[in-house]
Amino acid sequence: MKKQNSRILCIGMPKGSLQEATFDLFQKAGYRVSLDRRSYFPYINDPELKGRMLRAQEIARYVESGDLDCGLTGHDWTMENNAKVKEVADLRYAKSSFAVVRWVLAVPEASSIKTVKDLEGKRVCTELVNFTKRWFKKQGVKATVEYSWGATEAKVPDLADAIVELTETGSSLRANKLRVVDTLLESSTRFIANKDAWADPWKRKKMEDIALMLQGALNAQGKAGLKMNLPKTALNAALKVLPAMKNPTVSSLADGEWLALETIVEESVVREIIPSLKRAGACDIIEYKLSKVIE
Prior knowledge:
By secondary structure, the protein is α/β, with parallel strands linked by helices. The chain contains nine helices and 16 strands. The protein is 29% helix and 32% strand.
């Protein structure tokens, strides 16, 4: 294990499908990250952070070894590498949604395979080889698991009897006329730390601060703030309209008969809520964007 500078935090960032979403999340959290087209060392506007771009599949093992203090990678790749790391935060974001992704066992729609037991002695292709082998062993099924270098969905039925493939929405599986037999693993992006780095007070505080800001940025996704004035007599009607995260903040105005109300709502329902608030008696209604929500 390489000894890292005690006042520099070395962080691994995923190159590939998660890169743009990761940079965007850091931006919203207050960290500007930029990368030259041919570089693997991003600039971060925090002199205490040293970034390195790596494939998500590799980050967990470099964090475990101490070559990185921490990193962002899928829980699936930590499991694939069987890496012994500290999980700092579960960051529910992926390349196209905020849902968890799944590794599923899939077969052609017309296949006679109905359960995992039907794969005894069969061939399975996947990129998640080590975890899949362990999973089949737990199921008591002896199947040949082969590494797939890509285009995994094209391997069945001619080159394999089944595949274990990552799906976020299921659209690609449906497009390739594949049927899900079972789910092996649910995964999301995690912020992980080397255990020795986590034991270092300065590095731990730094990682906790980063995790707090990243989670705050994620919490703000799809939400909006609302401010308004309303007469005291309209408060109960307005509260019935608002699906607030918690009780809204209500304060008195100089005119004792009026109140100011502020709350956070899902952005998707604002267009329905504002007209209802107006009808309830609210006025001076302001909608504003949120960059972070710290719970």
